[in-house]
Amino acid sequence: MVSFKRLVYYGTEQSPGLTRLSAQDECIDAMATTTSAPTRFTIAGDGIAGRAMALGLARAGFTATIIAPDADTAIEGGVQLAPNSWAALQHLQVDDAARDGAVPLSLMRMLSINTGHSLVQLGLNDRPRRSPYTSMTRAHLMACLRDAATATGQVSWINASLAEATTSNGRAQCTLDDGTTHNSDWLIGADSLNGACRHYVEAQDASAIPPDLIARRVAFRMVVASAELPPRFATRASTVWLGDGGHVVHYPLADGTVNIVAVVAQSPSARARVKRMLGAHASLTPLIPHLDGAREQPLFDHLHLDTYQRGRVVLAGDAAHPMPPHLAQGAGQSLIDAASLSQQLSRLEADDDLAPVFTRWTAERVRAIRSIRASADRAGAMFAMSGPMARLRNLGLSTFGGPMLERQLDELWSS
Ligand SMILES: Cc1cc2nc3c(=O)[nH]c(=O)nc-3n(C[C@H](O)[C@H](O)[C@H](O)COP(=O)(O)OP(=O)(O)OC[C@H]3O[C@@H](n4cnc5c(N)ncnc54)[C@H](O)[C@@H]3O)c2cc1C
């Protein structure tokens, strides 16, 4: 276990429970403490990945400062968390708190929008390795991670935005939006898929839109009170409706709402297309009145990176491995990033060099993500089929889809 634990207190402001400091204070502090040489981490991004990484580092004995552009804004909707995500939450010692706001789902099923027939069903309580499979509001997950990180006393927040990340003189250097710089030993880039950290690791001009940022699909996200929908939407199941060129997913959340995501090809008429898709089966038509309020989110295609590290900048979460949502693994893999790094750092002796750990960890994560991403891409391509291919898909799924799905998910969730 690393011996350098350091508690820092700064002038606080804003959000209850969070210690926030100004960028200026932090620069002064960084300069004043260079001689005591505790290993300092900065994390860009206060999303699921950023908070999980901060918690994972704290559990391994390190201090971390999160650069967060905003105080907690309303975080809508939910995520499904599979057994592999729960194993990571357990390692981060936040599983008990997380469980309080989780809905255990007992069934995963795929249905045809054209016929309403069930194509595949997977019992989630059947085998220990398929459980727990849950839904959870994003707000609950984020709050659990924040509270656990705060309780360690080793995580603090800077209210600022990262403008540029670089490595200078063997240290990570952040230039913040107010022009000040913030130095640390390592920078974890959890500032998402088009953030400054990914630009740095990819050696791209931060002002340019990367050529891989093309959205061929778009998701429409809705959160609707269960009371406004027929009771079947509250069934404790993850339900996927497969249509002609698109699909709809819904599952219940613990706050009495239903999380709904509809995905179709990106086009100016995408919303109208979703409306037609919802109108194609009576079970889905109750969702149509809620479509006007749906949040539209392009699903960008991304190059798979060969490394998540450049110098002292290391990527995590969507910044490292943006993932199509079709296997519900993006947030889960962000938690696994944090848990696996934490595990490796915990094994270090005091004064051990961290560089080989990052080299090994990023190589392992790149390898693991490659196959998960490939499976998610395959699922996305299958969900997007239209015309005769969609009919063939439905036939295939209803004939031999069950064992195929079981094999694939059991392997994924035990990884
Ligand atoms: C439709 C849909 C459904 C999904 N469903 C699931 C699911 O069921 N299960 C699952 O596991 N995953 C799911 N995902 C994936 C999951 O949402 C993401 O993988 C996860 O949110 C990634 O977290 P993150 O922290 O890496 O990125 P984000 O949540 O994007 O957070 C990035 C953070 O970086 C901050 N940031 C950005 N720029 C800067 C800057 N310049 N300086 C400082 N901070 C900055 C942002 O403010 C934000 O707080 C889904 C995704 C989509 C699109």
Give the gist of this structure.
The protein has 415 residues and is an alpha/beta fold. The chain contains 10 helices and 20 strands. Helix content is 34%, strand content 26%.
Features:
FAD/NAD(P)-binding domain; 415 residues; alpha/beta; seven-stranded mixed sheet; disordered N terminus
Could you characterize the architecture of this molecule?
The structure is a single chain. With 415 residues, this protein is of the alpha/beta class. It has a domain at 20-74 and 139-210 and 305-377: 3-Layer(bba) Sandwich (FAD/NAD(P)-binding domain). The chain is built from ten helices and 20 strands. The chain has helices at residues 23-32, 48-59, 83-91, 95-99, 138-152, 196-201, 270-279, 330-346, 355-383, 387-413, and strands spanning 20-21, 40-44, 63-68, 78-81, 102-104, 107-112, 118-123, 134-137, 155-159, 162-168, 171-176, 181-184, 186-189, 214-225, 237-242, 246-252, 257-265, 295-301, 309-310, 313-315. It has a seven-stranded mixed beta sheet with strand order 1-9-3-2-13-20-19. Strand 6 and strand 7 form a beta hairpin. Helix 2 (48-59) runs parallel beside helix 5. The longest helix has 29 residues, at 355-383. It starts with 19 loop residues before the first strand and ends with a helix. The structure holds flavin-adenine dinucleotide. Residues 44-50, 67, 69, 79-80, 161-162, 190-192, 195-196, 219, 221, 261, 297, 317-319, 325, 328-332, 334 line the site of flavin-adenine dinucleotide.
